[in-house]
Specification:
Elements: E1 5-10, E2 15-22, E3 25-33, H1 35-38, H2 46-67, E4 79-85, H3 89-106, E5 110-114, H4 115-121, E6 134-139, E7 144-149, E8 155-160, H5 166-176, H6 183-191, H7 215-227, H8 233-259, E9 263-267, H9 274-287, E10 290-293, H10 296-299, H11 304-317
Parallel strand pairs: 1-4, 4-5, 6-9, 9-10
Antiparallel strand pairs: 1-2, 2-3, 6-7, 7-8
Helix pairs in contact: 2-3, 4-11, 5-6, 5-7, 6-8, 7-8, 8-9
The structure holds 5'-O-[(R)-(carboxyoxy)(hydroxy)phosphoryl]adenosine (KG4) and zinc ion.
Residues 115, 119, 140, 268, 301 line the site of zinc ion (ZN).
């Protein structure tokens, strides 16, 4: 059987993305960022995000098809996949509606994709050997979850954040320190120049095996600045990032020990964090487990992971109906 040719579309938040996969091979991956639309507001403005998706979607999809060497008017696809949740409802509607219209026009099946499940398969796009069971640490702007993955399509959530997501903590602290949006890359850069032991920030839920909490940590950083107005931003960033990565690495390794997992993978936007990548790699090396650090291109939001997750979902359960509606609060359990 020839490998399935899939178009994936992702518009759950502030990136308009489209990609074409043949089997597990990425033929094209196009991302149009809306950073310049939102950065002066210090966060994503839902109404503006939907409008920007409407403006970008047709050209982003056309570019993904032509980059893949296909005729954009008659691409000969086998499947069209689009994210249907979780995310901003107006943003989701744009990609979902476009995908359905394209699938109708080309008379190919359509499938809706859970954005979080797409993050879980992203490491496969790196071409590394798949090892199951594995623990995936999914850390993004909206989610922090530890997941036991037993095959391409089967997984169980072991724990999650009870308040802020890890990326949200990065974004809020960065905003407070005037480091721009999104906050992760700025903190990552600053932290390299600071002392991670300068401030003793809390490590929450130390004794609760797999759940996380970051809102107290965020408050502690704000309080530290109030108490030490001359504190160096570099030291605050380094100490904050050390507190976050301590908890993430410790809980991931505890999940490995508890489940006997053979591998660990990082997914989601925070997986781009350099300290998290280094420390998780050392911990896995020390424990003798394989580690897969998704390439930065596939750990932040992209449509290649949506195309792959769509292909997996289609294999499991066939196409979705064209009545599929966006699900802004979709979780990994659904
Ligand atoms: O997965 P993603 O692209 O979008 C969501 O689905 O949320 O993740 C975006 C998040 C943002 O919170 C951003 O600050 C964070 O990923 N991020 C980072 C880094 N790069 C992006 N966090 C820490 N360090 C980074 N280098
Ligand atoms: Zn994401």
């Amino acid at each position: 059987m020839t490998e399935r040719l899939v178009l994936g579309i992702e518009t759950s938040c502030d990136d308009t993305a489209a990609a074409v996969l043949r089997g597990d091979t990425v033929l094209s991956s196009v991302i149009s960022s809306q950073l310049d639309v939102h950065d002066r507001f210090g966060g994503v403005v839902p109404e503006l995000a939907s409008r920007a998706h409407v403006e970008a979607i047709a050209s982003v999809v056309t570019k993904a098809l032509t980059d893949a060497g296909l005729d954009p008017l008659a691409p000969g696809l086998d499947l069209v996949a689009a994210t249907y949740g979780p995310g901003l409802v107006g943003s989701l509607l744009v990609g979902l509606s476009f995908a359905k219209a394209a699938a109708k026009r080309w008379e190919v099946p359509f499938v809706g994709v859970n954005h979080l499940a797409a993050h879980l398969v992203a490491p496969i796009l790196e071409g590394e050997a798949e090892r199951y069971p594995k623990i995936v640490l999914l850390v993004s702007g909206g989610h922090t979850e530890l997941v036991l993955v037993t095959s391409r399509s089967e997984y169980r959530v072991l724990g999650a954040t009870i308040d802020d997501a890890a990326g949200e903590a990065f974004d809020k602290v960065a905003r407070f320190l005037g480091l721009g949006y999104p906050g992760g890359p700025g903190i990552d850069r600053m932290a390299k120049l600071g002392d991670p032991t300068a401030f003793a920030f809390p490590r929450a839920l130390k004794d609760v095996p797999f759940d996380f909490s970051f809102s107290g940590l965020k408050t502690s950083v704000l309080r530290a600045v109030e108490l030490n107005p001359t504190a160096k931003t570099e030291d605050l960033c380094a100490s904050f990032q050390r507190a976050v990565t301590d908890v993430l690495v410790q809980k991931t390794m505890a999940a490995v020990a508890a489940t006997g997992a053979e591998g660990v993978a990082l997914a989601g936007g925070v997986a781009a964090n350099s300290e998290l990548r280094e420390r998780l790699k050392s911990a896995c090396d020390a424990a003798g487990v394989a580690v897969s650090l998704a390439g930065r291109a596939f750990c932040t939001d992209n449509a290649a992971m949506v195309a792959l997750a769509g292909s997996v979902a289609f294999e499991q359960a066939g196409p979705h109906r064209f009545t599929l509606a966006p699900e802004p609060s979709l979780s990994l359990g659904d």
